[in-house]
Design a protein that fits this description.
single chain; about 190 residues; Aminopeptidase; seven-stranded mixed beta sheet
Length: about 190
């Protein structure tokens, strides 16, 4: 799955480009179906190896989860992946609302491969979750971003999320807080 990215990185390309050389990056974003749990497991493990500081889960605990966990996750959660050619270059999930905020949905587990950051893949993944949430009747989408990830926070602000003032400790990194952000859907 990553052979295309490895070849591009070896050629020194900062970002994968479209085949016509226009400078625009082309990504396809789609929702995973119930049979694609092995792909979900693989891309989540890649994300956790690449950016352990950005997630509440650890690679070790995620790698130890059995097939049933992944089968259930891909069915109960709205998982989306971004492709560049045959390579999966990003992932994000949408969670249903909770009792405390039933009119919102939550964006979680966002990750884009380092070679595709800044190419529009992240914005497309956010758009997919926001579209899913709106179709599910939500009025807003919320997320949590690590306080030690200012690049992610700036990105989320650019795509319409605003800080709510709520914060709490990151589960796997005591001493680091996550900041809640919210985006109204219109």
């Amino acid at each position: 799955m990553t052979a295309g990215l490895d070849r591009q990185e070896a050629l020194g390309l900062e970002h994968p480009q479209d085949s016509e050389g226009t400078g625009r990056t082309v990504h396809a974003v789609r929702r995973l179906d119930g049979t694609e749990w092995p792909l979900l497991r693989e891309v989540r493990q890649r994300a956790l190896r690449d950016a352990p500081h950005a997630f509440g889960a650890t690679h070790t605990e995620t790698a130890a989860r059995g097939d049933e966990f992944w089968r259930a996750s891909v069915v109960r959660t709205a998982w989306f992946v971004a492709h560049h050619g045959d390579a999966v270059v990003g992932v994000v999930a949408g969670l249903p609302g909770d009792a405390a905020d039933p009119g919102s949905r939550e964006l979680v587990s966002m990750w884009v491969a380092p070679s595709c950051r800044g190419t529009g893949a992240a914005a497309q993944l956010v758009a997919a979750v926001c579209g899913w949430a709106q179709g599910d009747g939500a009025a807003a989408v919320r997320l949590k971003v690590s306080e030690v990830n200012p690049r992610a926070r700036r990105f989320y602000e650019r795509v319409g999320f605003r800080l709510t003032g709520a914060r709490k400790p990151l589960r796997n990194q005591p001493g680091v807080d996550v900041l809640e952000m919210r985006r109204a859907l219109t």
